Amino acid sequence: MSLLEVFENAERITALVHPTPGGRLVLHQLLLGLCYATGVHPRSPQQWRTWVTDGRSLAEVAERLAAPEFDGRFDLAHPERPFGQNAALAPFMEQHGYGTAQLEMHRAADYNQLFDHKHLYDPQPLPIEDALAAMLVEHSYGLGGRMRAKTNWLGPAFTYGSVGRLGSRISVLAMGTNLADTLRLNLTPTDTPGTFNFSWTDGKTRRDFRSTARQSRTVDGPADLCSVLGRSVLMRPVIASDGRLVIDRVLVGAGELLEPLPPMHQQDAVLRGDWPWQARAERALWRDANAIYAAFAPHRDKGTDLYSRLLTIGRRVDLWAVGLIARQRDVTAWVSDTFPFAPDYELTLRTASSQALECAEATAKAVRSAAAVARDTLYPRARPEERTRLLQHLHPGPQLWARFEAPFRTLMDDITAGTPHEQALTTYTTAVTEAAHQALAERLRALPQTGTGLEAAVRAQARLDRDLAKRTHPVPAPGARTAAS
After folding, report:
1. How far from the centroid of its chain's Cα atoms is residue 356's Cα?
2. Section 391-401 average pLDDT
3. By the 8 A CB rule, do 411 and 354 touch?
4. Please, are residues 110 and 120 in contact by the beta-carbon 8 Å criterion?
5. What is the DSSP letter of 204?
6. Are the beta carbons of 103 and 126 closer than 8 angstroms?
7. Beta carbons of 348 and 481 less than 8 angstroms apart
8. How many Cβ atoms sit within 10 Å of the Cβ of residue 155?
9. pLDDT of residue 478
């Protein structure tokens, strides 16, 4: 579909589709930015609630985008102002253009691009619609590092890319029943939407890469935020043998630098302690679900963010969290997860998610202690450097946490559906306990079934029972709301 068709059919489109969570998220950002750019957005939290509850049509966005002022603005192949790109790179394309792998983060992988990465020269062309999403991902998620660019193109500063505005934290979208509902839920009420960035040469005064001084700018509104040009990108479009428009070569260099964003421009931000919630390879997102539910807690400085608004709509929504895992500028994986939310059970969800995590952590600690008892019984004289390796053979490790996930999902769904707090938590605790016993028993089966092996298994199971009995049984917090209240 074209952009106009997307907005015209937004009520009938169930969801946007892309192979990567990051690509799907930035496509939502593009559509939200166009709502602001056309002036089709709520002006106040009260109007936002009316738009959401009444299902205000977004077809008007398509009508406004059809106006002459937007002619050519979305042309990825425009010779002077290609959409989302920096046309100043055109003189260098013929001699220095690379294959499209550089544009796609998951294919480029290593962001320290000073080495001879032969895969970046892969001549395989990229369909134009895939190139659009890849470019938007670069603008939002590009990692810090040296680019495959030369200082004599646009200046010394052009060779080093900064971290994209979404690359350092997890983003959250409230997902509705269809695309239009999702867009309405995530539109920030504002009287100052700001200006949309159609291209590097169309609109604002941009960064001068020849200057050694840091040149950052302040975001002027959500339209600007949703379309920030975090990279200088130029794509070379060609017509393929089958008649399709494809991209065969690209150039990528440093883009805009932003001043630190105030809370009004981080409507979906979630804190884990004092820091933004970040994706980590060793920790599944559901293990930090208490952080996303804690975002609904009332604070004096809140009242205008996404979470405070969701408390007012009186119906369930799903919270979709997306993050990028990267180590040493090496793109590792995208992660995403969905968490249910219902305003009537906000406090119960917040309390139960924290209690569930405490229960899971205490259970995991008990299993580790039990495995250590088995190890010490079998190998009482093991050298210090061997103890960790021996424990790994007896401890379920990450598989244990994987077994805890399903009970947690059931807990959140039960509470959202109105199951009383204590009942739901008791069911969860029982399931976690059974999972812990089963995971440890599977490891202990590998032990010799005679003599010391049997003794180690008996002692380990006894230690597990004793430690599990010491856990604090989850009980409803005082004043917690339930279905009855």
Report:
1. 23
2. 85
3. no
4. no
5. S
6. yes
7. yes
8. 17
9. 38
